[in-house]
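#lab-general

N.A. 3:47 PM
ok so I finally got the sequence cleaned up, no stray characters, all 305 residues accounted for. can someone with queue access submit it? mine expired

B.Y. 3:52 PM
send it over

N.A. 3:53 PM
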Amino acid sequence: MHKKETFRAHFHKYWSLYAMMILPMAYFTLFKYLPMFGNILAFRRYRPGMGAFGTGWVGSHYFQRFFRDPAFWGALENTFLLSICNLVINFPLPILFALLLNELPGGKFKKTVQTVSYMPRFISTVVVIAILHEILSPSGGLLNRLLGSAFGWNPIYFVNEPKYFRAIYVLTGSWQFTGWTAIIYLAAITNINSDLYEAAEMDGASRFQKMRHVTIPSIMPTIMVMLILQIGHMLSLGFEKVLLLYTPANSNVSDILDTLVYRTGLMNQNYSYAAAIGLFSGLIGLILVSTANAVSRKATGDSIY
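B.Y. 4:20 PM
back already:
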């Protein structure tokens, strides 16, 4: 009774905060949790128009099938290689950018740099790829013109060349998300106790030493949480951008699990097979998150749970 009365009093006092939770809870319920029931299709044969949950139980048939599928293993390899490249480049970049931005004196220049770095985040992926195609176009792109006038190179169709695909994917992500992700680290830096900097300065520490021995250790919990989340999304690379950059010529490096699921499910209408691949991808992501969380908790004492 006492707990019920306490909850009622708490709800009455903070009802506006509970009201703000309605939309996020509805979003996660409708688009995250309810679709999980669709994973049953990975174990049942689905035919359009013959029931929402398939027509017959097939067990692990579709899992055995994609384990024998060379296209699956190629897509899995491409996914991991692209994820590792993205992690190595685009994870430390926002941290470095936030550290350098924090060293700038407050003023118009710092605010301008912050604003300019945030702006690409508000450009849709479709527009980013369209701009990229214009810049890299072999018929009149800015990059090919510069290379032709400076070095006499023949036009190169960069987007169509497999050897340039991963670099293009990673660098466009760097341009689009570095400034936006740096906001998280800047927020963590602002919460550092100024007494720590004053004590370091009294000990004769330089700006670099204060960054190394005060700033970085203080934001390490935030860095580890972001790293765990990043590792958990290693198999979710951003389906839209990969699909927009995908061409038959670069398919041997650009075909990832998400595009394989798209082709298998929507184009070939093999929904159960696509559901099995998607479920496997989700399980691998869960294992990666759990492993990274355990390693982080043991090594640094910081973790998500």
